[in-house]
Amino acid sequence: MNRGLKGYERAIGILTPLGLLLLWEAAGRLGLIDVRFFPPPSSIVHQIGVLIASGELLDNTLASLRRLALGMLLGGVPALLLGLAMGISRPLRVAIDPLISATYPIPKSAILPLVLLIFGLGELSKVVMVALGAFYPIVINTMVGVVNLDRIYLDVGHNFRASRWQVFRTIALPGALPSIMAGIKLAAGMGLILIAISEMVASNDGIGFMIWNAWQVLTVDTMYVGLLVIAILGFVFSIVLDEIERRLIPWKTNA
Question: Which CATH superfamily hosts domain 39-248?
Fold first, then answer.
């Protein structure tokens, strides 16, 4: 019964966007919408073929993915370690949590000029922007995951005279994994947003550059291709991270 329900839900999830695309196509062909600003899906698909044939789409996508991967590593690894340490150590949490609470609400796109001023217009500035966006969701979710652990597990570790490293590796990290994965998913989405913004401002390649350049020359189809690529990447990241979560956290049950 559960399998049938999941199949039904999967079918609904596929048919709903397809239905919307068909309505969009029909509205464009019937003249109900201005195709100069909302080109029909068939026109966008044709433009995808053109960009693939020229190699432009693949080159820009790979450039963005490279920056995104480097930024996730640069921001995610320190955030994971710091979040675990803050969750285990109350004094460290008391010292650092106010700093995170104060700086987290600052829009990351608003500090792009400062990042460009410090790191220049090269690759590093784009990577740093992604790192900043990834850092906060991961460190906050990791810390919350450790803090919300049942204290009995930590007490058992202390009773068996486990070292800090053993507590860190065998109790804090596994126990906080569900929260950590939630933070990584948020970080991936934020990374996609920030890499597109930074590439629009200071880059000669990437999906963001492609969208901005298309706006400058009024190639609306290409703009939609860029937006579609970002949406597809977000969807693929979600599926991959869900699968990783399922393998890392087999005891977690999904509603």
Answer: MetI-like (1.10.3720.10)
